[in-house]
Amino acid sequence: MRKDVKPVIVIEQKGKDFTYTMKTPFFSRVNSFTIGKESEISSVDGRKLK
């Protein structure tokens, strides 16, 4: 059943700031970053990435 579920991805921009949201019935993940600045985000499986 999970392989049949497609995530809803929303990307929002406010100037140089971006927010990336991925939603499924099972989880929701939100990452934010600013262009030109190093940031840490979480992958789908929860790993931290720089």
Structure write-up:
The chain has 50 residues and is mainly β. It has a domain at 1-34. It is built from no helices and five strands. It has strands at residues 8-14, 17-23, 28-34, 41-42, 48-49. The protein has a three-stranded antiparallel β-sheet with strand order 1-2-3, with no helix packed on it. It is flat. The N and C termini lie far apart (32 Å). The model has no long low-confidence stretch (mean pLDDT 89).
Strand order of the largest sheet: 1-2-3
Question: With helices defined by DSSP (H or I, 4 residues minimum), what is the helix count?
Answer: 0
Assembly state = single chain
Helices and strands, in N-to-C order? EEEEE
Instruction: Please compute the radius of gyration using only Cα atoms.
Output: 12 Å
User: What is the percent of helical residues?
Assistant: under 10%
Largest sheet: 3 strands, antiparallel
β-strand percent reads over 45%
Structural class: mainly beta
Strand segment tally: 5
Choose one word for the global shape. flat
Q: Compute the average pLDDT.
A: 89
Distance between the termini: 32 Å
Low-confidence stretches: none
